[in-house]
Design goal:
The complex is a heterodimer of chains A (571) and B (334).
Chain A lengths: L1 H21 L1 H30 E2 L2 E2 L2 H8 L1 H34 L5 H9 L7 H11 L6 H8 L7 H26 L2 H9 L4 H30 L2 H6 L6 H10 L4 H28 L19 H29 L1 E3 L3 E4 L2 H41 L5 H13 L2 H12 L14 H26 L2 H9 L4 H30 L15 H10 L3 H29 L6 H4 L1
Helix pairs in contact in A: 2-13, 2-16, 2-17, 3-4, 4-8, 4-10, 4-13, 4-14, 6-8, 6-14, 8-10, 8-18, 9-10, 10-13, 12-13, 14-22, 15-16, 15-18, 15-20, 15-21, 15-22, 16-18, 18-20, 19-20, 20-22, 21-22
Chain B lengths: L1 H23 L3 E6 L3 H15 L2 E6 L2 H10 L8 E6 H9 L3 E2 L21 E13 H7 L19 E4 L5 H14 L1 H14 L1 E5 L4 H8 L4 E5 H9 L5 E4 L7 E9 L5 H11 L2 H5 L7 E2 L23 H6 L1 H12 L2
Parallel strand pairs in B: 1-2, 1-3, 6-7, 6-8
Antiparallel strand pairs in B: 3-10, 4-10, 5-8, 5-9, 5-10, 5-11
Classes of the chains: A mainly alpha (571), B alpha/beta (334).
Chain lengths: 571, 334
């Protein structure tokens, strides 16, 4: 028995080695990607871990002991988990309702709702918290009205955090679920209906199970984003202290790199667990629904008791999003928010004087980072899903790591790793444009990979196998068959990474330099200073630029990507 | 595959151009500033105009600057640490991160404004004060707080904001003032009541509470007088500034040369410039108190002679920071 299983293992490895021989280019690419992943993902993290468990070159767990024995370290851990679960659950539900409404119902003004559902993605997350304070803070615009209805309340704390993080991160859930629900052939649901199943039965036994991997991915993504978010908690958490902020304060406020790293590693554990649970769950089920056969029409008519709550929820959510961003627009024209409401353009003039250089840097660096992110991301997802090679699981794991690690820690890791020469990186990167570009690439890539994986999992490998059977090699098949099919995922990954590059803050704040600085850092300075009108004006400008860039990508896609729906870019 | 390879190459080429371009420039001074972006711009651009030296700078809180300098210790990226409370500079000096430098000034720099070995320097000063929303005072028919004890007023329940003493130089100066007035244990006892009763929220930066008070988010904030004037009163918020009659603490604005500075000579030029009358006159805009006796003090500013100060020991405060902060966190639990 032992012998035969060993034999089989040997044959498998030999088979993989033969593959290398047959496809040397692929092999070189795999090696290259491994080098980049190790250097720019694993190595900085290793430095952070090293800082948490080594004191003066000796093993020492006193950092961990301190964290478990002091409530001011441990309470934030519990708070973060509670916040992450609440935000992920509510955010996923909101995202699912929206995705369902847009793919399965004849909702009027679909493009309007799609826009509102995805809009928060293109703004720096702390802008939502800023709007929440302007609206519902103690001196907020809507506070007297709301106080009459629900009595005394405080927007600072868990409730306010869940509100703003749901708005900021449910678009992520929506993007994932929209892609999944759209890919599920509605004819399956039609078949179920033709066989006499009730609506609720169709939903619970056809739609929902098919969407399960998407729901799991969405929940995971929102959970991790919420856990790692520090922009919103910084602005609105009040006395509800969360781990990401504490790790950040520990590092930036107390210059305590070892304990800050230790807190961050504590933050990493639940996110990694979430990652593994999701992976195990998804990999157990197969949801191939794109078969290459022609698909039927979408379900058109729905009963009022389905339409009413779904439409109502969409309207409510869209209303909230419009209210929040409207407040930012309005606030950006006010002389002094809350005190002097005279409308003025002065904020924009001053903001532009101060922020012009930041703006140019942000655009330059993001424009360079975006295509790298997209191409490397889609290539890695292709390797992970469609190719068998030694270390494939490791590649997926490492490529997802930056996403699961709070940005602050990645930033510190980059400083620790790249301000000196080392075996893996013989040049000093700190202070250059490279370090920002690399950080942007490897921080934003996981979303591209994830959407690539989700898209590839939905495509029957038989389509590619057919191509190979007809004599095409790996490259041709990838280029002619796979690439066009995953193009929507590629371009949404591209758009997403540009937006994230423009709005990144948590990790980037550590690697900016005098020469290369970013607009979000400037905005955070204004928020920090309660110069809300300036912050609002600069955020508006950032949003407009991102919108223009998205329009541009859409235009390019329209020119070159035949069959790629423009909606895929935002959705 | 070929297309991908080509696009990768093009992108790499672009990045190379960007880097090459950035290397081509010369006579560049890199510095970290703890002033807010707008304020930093005022001073740095004046320096650039006068000397023709190009300054590349990043704005960070003093805690971030210190973390950055510490992380970069083996390969410093900046030459000067501009501004931030001198307690942070003293802390950095005690960690051996700063390079002693005696600036060329046309006046005698008071002992209070430099380390014995010149590892850190001071170039402005300001006292801790209270900022109160006047609309709140009218509504509640109250007087603004004029003593530390006033902060425990029943009407101020959950109505006071300030920064964490471990993230902000301002808040740490406040805390160190109380420790030096009362002793550590008594100061913590007082703070526990203060935390339970009055504190609505701790912020990260020392100036954030001024805007919060201005907007009416809280009634009272604790910050530096120059910040209260520049960001509260001058900004047009309905606020009033008061000082505790028992005595208050004050900060010296720090300025130092970073150890292993890549552009040490330019850094020294910048530091010397910061003490000139012209440079110190610029402080008027932000109500900071200049150290150069020839410089003009902004109208309406509160000088250190105007308020009752405690005998604040900056060296002790700087060197005890880690211990005192740990004691605070152990007791307050935040």
């Amino acid at each position: 028995m032992m012998n035969s299983s060993r034999n089989r293992q040997f044959h498998e490895i030999a088979g993989q080695l033969r593959l290398i021989w047959k496809e040397p280019i692929l092999f070189v690419f795999i090696i290259l990607i491994f080098y980049f992943l190790f250097t720019f993902v694993a190595y900085p993290l290793f430095q952070v871990i090293k800082y948490s468990i080594f004191i003066d070159g000796q093993w020492d767990f006193s950092n961990y002991l301190a964290i478990f024995s002091k409530r001011y370290y441990f309470q934030p851990f519990i708070n973060s988990i509670i916040l992450g679960i609440c935000t992920a659950t509510i955010g996923t539900i909101a995202g699912f309702i929206f995705a369902y409404a847009l793919t399965r119902t004849p909702l009027p003004f679909k493009s309007f709702f799609r826009l509102t559902a995805t809009f928060p993605i293109i703004s720096p997350p702390f802008v939502v918290a800023l709007a929440a304070i302007l609206l519902f803070g103690r001196a907020g615009a809507l506070t007297p009205w709301l106080k009459n209805i629900i009595g005394n309340y405080s927007v600072y704390g868990l409730g306010g955090l869940i509100l703003v993080e749901t708005i900021a991160y449910s678009p992520t859930a929506f993007m994932v679920l929209y892609g999944i629900l759209e890919a599920i052939d509605p004819s399956l649901e039609e078949a179920s209906m033709d066989l006499g199943a009730a609506r609720i039965k169709i939903f619970s036994s056809v739609t929902l199970p098919l969407a399960t991997p998407g729901i799991a991915s969405a929940w995971l993504l929102v959970f991790i984003q919420s856990m790692a978010d520090f922009g919103n908690p910084m602005v609105i958490s009040g006395n509800y202290r969360v781990l990401s902020v504490q790790a950040f304060l520990q590092i930036t406020g107390m210059y305590d790199l070892p304990r800050g790293s230790t807190l961050a590693i504590l933050l990493l554990v639940p996110t990694l667990i979430a990652f593994f649970v999701q992976k195990y769950w998804v990999s157990r089920k197969s949801y191939v629904t794109v078969t290459g056969k022609p698909t039927g029409a979408t379900i058109k008519n729905l009963e009022w008791y389905i339409k009413l709550p779904v439409y109502g929820a969409c309207l409510l959510y869209a209303g909230i999003v419009i209210l929040f961003y409207g407040t930012i627009v309005y606030g950006s024209f006010q002389t002094l928010w809350g005190v002097n409401p005279t409308l003025t353009l002065q904020n924009y003039v001053e903001m532009f004087e101060v922020g012009k250089d930041y703006l140019i840097d942000s655009i330059t660096l993001s424009t360079i980072a975006t295509p790298i992110t997209g191409i490397v991301g889609i290539f890695i997802s292709f390797l992970i899903i469609r190719k068998k090679f030694i270390g494939r699981g490791l590649m997926e794991f490492i490529s997802m790591l930056t996403f699961a690690v709070p940005g602050t820690v990645v930033g510190i890791g980059y400083i620790l790793a790249f301000n000196q020469e080392s075996v893996v990186m013989p040049v000093v990167l700190t202070g250059t444009a490279w370090i920002i570009i690399l950080l942007l690439v490897f921080r934003n890539m996981p979303v591209g990979i994830r959407s690539g994986i989700a898209a590839l999992q939905q495509i029957d490998p038989a389509i590619e196998e057919a191509s190979t059977d007809l004599g095409a090699d790996s490259n041709t098949t990838f280029r002619k068959i796979t690439l066009p099919m995953i193009a929507p995922a590629f371009f949404s990954g591209l758009a997403y990474s540009f937006v994230k590059a423009m709005t990144a803050i948590s990790a980037i704040i550590f690697v900016v330099s005098g020469q290369w600085n970013l607009i979000t850092v400037a905005i955070l300075g204004f928020v920090d200073n309660t110069q809300y009108a300036h912050a609002a004006a600069m955020s508006m400008l950032l949003i407009v630029i991102v919108l223009i860039a998205l329009g541009l990508i859409q235009f390019i896609v329209g020119k070159i990507g035949k069959g790629v729906r423009t909606t895929e870019i935002l959705g | 595959m070929k297309k991908i390879l080509w696009s990768l190459l093009i992108v790499l080429f672009l990045v190379f151009c960007v880097t090459a371009n950035s290397l081509a420039q010369k006579e560049v001074l890199h510095l970290y500033t703890a002033f807010d972006t707008e304020e930093a711009k005022l001073y740095i651009e004046a320096f650039e105009e006068e000397t023709g030296i190009d300054v590349q700078w990043v704005r960070m809180s003093s805690g971030e600057v210190l973390a950055r300098i510490e992380a970069e210790a083996s390969n410093p990226q900046a030459s000067v640490w501009h501004a931030g409370s001198n307690t942070s500079h003293i802390n950095a000096a005690s960690k051996g991160l700063l390079e002693p430098y005696k600036p060329n000034t046309d006046f005698e720099l008071p002992d209070l404004f430099h380390a014995d070995d010149w590892a850190w320097l001071g170039f402005y000063s300001g006292a801790i004060g209270f900022v109160t929303n006047t609309e709140f005072l009218e509504e509640n028919n109250m007087e603004p707080p004029t003593s530390w004890a006033n902060l425990l007023h029943p009407k101020l329940k959950q109505n006071v904001a300030m920064a964490y003493p471990y993230t902000s130089g301002t808040a740490y100066t406040t805390y160190a003032t109380l420790v030096q007035m009362l002793g550590l244990e008594k100061a913590l006892d007082w703070w526990e009541d203060f935390d339970q009763h009055s504190i609505f929220q701790y912020t990260k930066s020392g100036t954030a509470c001024i805007g919060m008070v201005g907007l009416g988010e809280v009634a009272v904030g604790i910050s530096f007088s120059h910040d209260i004037l520049a960001k509260g009163v001058k900004a047009g918020y309905p606020v009033v500034m008061t000082f505790p009659e028992e005595g208050t603490g004050y900060e010296i604005g720090g300025l130092s040369l970073i150890k292993g500075a890549p552009e040490a000579e330019l850094g020294k030029k910048f530091i010397d410039w910061c003490y000139t009358v012209d440079a110190q006159n610029l402080f008027q805009e932000y109500n900071r108190l200049p150290v150069n006796p020839e410089a003009t003090v902004a109208e309406g500013s509160v000088t250190l002679e105007d308020v009752k100060l405690i005998d604040y020991d900056h060296i002790l405060a700087g060197e005890s920071k880690d211990d005192w902060v740990e004691a605070w966190r152990d007791r307050i639990g935040k």
